[in-house]
Amino acid sequence: MKLKGNVFKYGDDVNTDEIIPARYLNTSDPKELAKHCMEDIDKDFVTKVKSGDIIVAEKNFGCGSSREHAPIAIKAAGVSCVIAKSFARIFYRNSINTGLSILECAEAAEEADSFDKMEVDLDRGIIRNLTKGKTYNSQGFPKFVQGIIKAGGLMKWVRKKK
Amino acid sequence: MTITEKILASHADKKKVQPGEIVNCKTDILLGNDITAPISINLFEKSGAKKVFDRNKIVFVPDHFAPNKDIESATQCKKLRDFSLKHRITNYFEVGRMGIEHALLPEKGIVLPGDLVIGADSHTCTYGALGAFSTGIGSTDLAAAMIIGKVWLKVPQTIKFIFFGKLNKWVSGKDLILYTIGKIGVDGANYRAMEFCGEAIKSLNMDNRLTICNMAIEAGAKNGIIAPDAETLRYVKKRAKRKYKIYNSDKDASCEEILEFNCTKIEPQVAFPHSPENTKPVSEAGKIKIDQVIIGSCTNGRITDLIEAAKILKGKKVNPNVRLLIFPATQEIYKEAMKMGIIDIFIDAEAVVSTPTCGPCLGGHMGILAEGERAVATTNRNFVGRMGHVKSEIYLASPAVAAASAVKGRIASPEEVVGK
């Protein structure tokens, strides 16, 4: 699958309270959550983000709480993919489980800036920064995790296994 | 093998596991709360599953926005209640019988040494203090485990933290973990097991150990763990209603890294906004005026924490410019504090004493900060906007430092209030 969009660039340690503040967790409705995505770190995000856009961040993206509302909010806001130097472990699991595409690539993350145009070939893990004219290979997923992604998320994987 | 590897191996029916290996593990306890479990329940029902894998191994605690703060929260709590009734979930804890989940489960003897626990709450890592493997996961992981009773886990590398030397006065488990996070950073143990040991850890009671493991996630860790000893058995024996197993790391177990900290050099710590890694000794905090103090949460709402706060607050009044809110973490702790006369001390000091709830810790309810306000809190995260307005600030500290700060109206050390 190929994705294409504008980059929204963030720094180190973006936490799940910034991705979706807890004050909005009295619901798990994706549309409601999407309205407040990234609100405390970038209040313009929800008005600027367009379907297909890509979040790029530095190290430890998604640290903090286990709230699955974080990847749900990002996905429902229209973001097609998150690229980071590294991900916090619960966010990593939650993204795989809920079908939010994530890629780990230090170089692509470091060199990208907000508003760059980016193209991602998910199947091959190739990232192209069209603005900068550079191509990167992301780190692949362990085989086991690939199985979950291929099945279409954890719940479908479980149903297949049962 | 390390204690973490041994527990994972035994739950995967394997003799040996190695870091990096992915294993499918049986679970002993699954946990969900009013924020995370509603998503799991929706997924469970959507999957067509008819029965949970074991109604005795699932625990639901409405604690985050309970007692219900608004209609939406009431609806989420109701989802837990209805599902628990329908599936005859043994361990559903209604308001009045509940507490903050990570204080409640050890207290009730629900989690025991050697267990493998997953919880849809990042602070599930707390139970490592009992010598269990315990980690936070998301709602989908919980939903899947509710059906199959299993979870896939990557065996983590272990970082060993050895705390040697005698603890200084007023230095608690909270100070040791804040100090550690200050040293290694908020991703210093990402995907790793943090194994805490050394004479200083052995000298701490279970409440303090639970505080240390509680904040392992704040360094990005998969789990925090402390090998069981006499203190663990003292705590567990009177609570356990089933068998449990004691694991220890082998002497030659391989660790990715060993870090040693000299406790004689550690003083009470304060983590400055907006990250738990921004730590300083309280003596270097400077004169920072505050508006609110929170004592409580899954990190520091246990009886030991309340006793420490009471030592400072006895016969004192909260500074007129400060609001002090205290949250005993469970009904049992509340009762014990009452018997000990601690609640009287708090009320006489003009503090608010509340029923158990996670409320203010995550900016939900019961103590939200306005623009420009500053709080000292015994909670676990001081992220931007965590306790209210985006332009408010949170300073993380121990119950003793928090209580001293409430009296002084600024960040203060316990000694400034009660002398050396």
Automatic annotation (TrEMBL), chain A:
Keywords: Amino-acid biosynthesis, Branched-chain amino acid biosynthesis, Leucine biosynthesis, Lyase. Its EC number is 4.2.1.33. Transmembrane segments: none annotated. Pfam families: Aconitase_C. Residues 38-105 form the Aconitase A/isopropylmalate dehydratase small subunit swivel domain. GO terms for biological process: L-leucine biosynthetic process. Heterodimer of LeuC and LeuD. This is 3-isopropylmalate dehydratase small subunit. It comes from Candidatus Schekmanbacteria bacterium RIFCSPLOWO2_12_FULL_38_15. The lineage of its organism: Bacteria, Candidatus Schekmaniibacteriota.
